Amino acid sequence: MQRRPFLATLGATAAALTTGTRAQEAPGRKLGWALVGLGSLSTHQIAPALAKTKHCRLAAIVTGTPEKAEKWKAQYGIPDSHVYNYETFDRIAENPDVDVIYVVLPNSMHEEFVIRGAKAGKHVFCEKPMANSADECRRMIAAMKSAGKQLGVGYRCQFEPHHRECMRLAREKVFGDLKFIEAGFGFQIGDPAQWRLRKKLAGGGALMDVGIYALQACRYLTGEEPVEIVAQEVKTDPVKFAEVDETISWSMKFPSGVMASVMTTYAFNGVNSFTAVCQNGKFGMDPAYSYDGLKGWTSKPEVKIEFPAVDHFQTEMDAFAAAILADVAFVPSGEEGLWDLLAIEAIYRSIAEGKAVTVGNV
Ligand code: NDP
Known about the structure:
Elements: H1 6-25, E1 31-36, H2 40-52, E2 56-62, H3 66-76, E3 83-84, E4 100-103, H4 110-119, E5 123-126, H5 134-147, E6 151-153, H6 161-171, E7 178-186, H7 199-202, H8 206-222, E8 228-234, E9 247-253, E10 259-265, E11 272-278, E12 281-285, E13 296-298, H9 312-326, H10 334-353, E14 357-358
Parallel strand pairs: 1-2, 1-4, 2-3, 4-5, 5-6, 7-10
Antiparallel strand pairs: 7-11, 8-9, 8-14, 9-10, 11-12, 12-13
Helix pairs in contact: 1-9, 2-9, 4-5, 5-10, 6-8
The chain binds NADPH dihydro-nicotinamide-adenine-dinucleotide phosphate.
């Protein structure tokens, strides 16, 4: 396993953000976005964020629920010609008003709609987790490549200033070499009937849904891919969590010798942080992954991690649009999603086999 070109990765993301400024100054048009799946995230986060963006606008909707279509048409002034359902979706290819398709569906549907979006000749932004397996990610990446369009994954924290400052502190070794990371994200999940608890739709439980944020933090702090993982699972409610994981803790070894100890859960609240322990001090965030109220801290009073709050969704959508407008590669792309799925598959494999396992490669 090779060290990921972390500097290049951060550089490309920064380029997208910088070119965002450039595109903002240019008279460039706003890109039209089609939202696929009008659930909680689309309704409460993405649509309001779209209204605040510099380079994007809500152009079309794709929904399987006619009542939602009526409500959104009225609320956002969307014409009938820009409303699709999952059967008529492919006609979006003929709609020049749509530049970007944003897939906000249950995880198992991401692959199908990303590939159909590619075939429609549109750029696609896909919610996390990118898919339910590394193979699905590979097919999605291939489809987007052959369409010659950009694929972005909704890793909103990568555009959030506290997280970006933590990446810088680690990369520039402000506290010396990074040695150890402790990270975790979990919450007490409610409604036992929801798709997040159905393996076929969700692919897995807490790990796929929120553990992925803590995994991401370890990957972007180290700038490396884990080489070996050992994981354990606990199920205190085998009925509710009959199909998916409830609580998992795992440790990861990175090529430079950094160790990470990570956990995720659907059983309780209170875990939402990371700590990066370095040779000469430490820093971290708590809370780390919520939409707002994020707090950074360091062991040196003179080094502060303090930034005004941003709308994560506005920022990431503008960065994706800016990359498209400036014709530069967007990061985090599908490869980033694939790396996460490789680590997630290793975690599940370690639990199943009861031993440490190596992580697959792209
Ligand atoms: P919801 O359950 O609230 O919405 C999903 C929507 O998908 C539904 O409302 C429905 O929309 C559509 N859908 C189509 N088929 C199905 C099906 N078989 N079962 C359920 N819904 C279906 O989920 P979220 O909005 O919370 O999550 C959607 C995606 O966004 C997930 O991949 C999730 O991981 C990700 N997410 C990311 C977050 C982040 O911070 N980046 C936060 C929350 C979620 P319709 O009625 O319009 O057809």
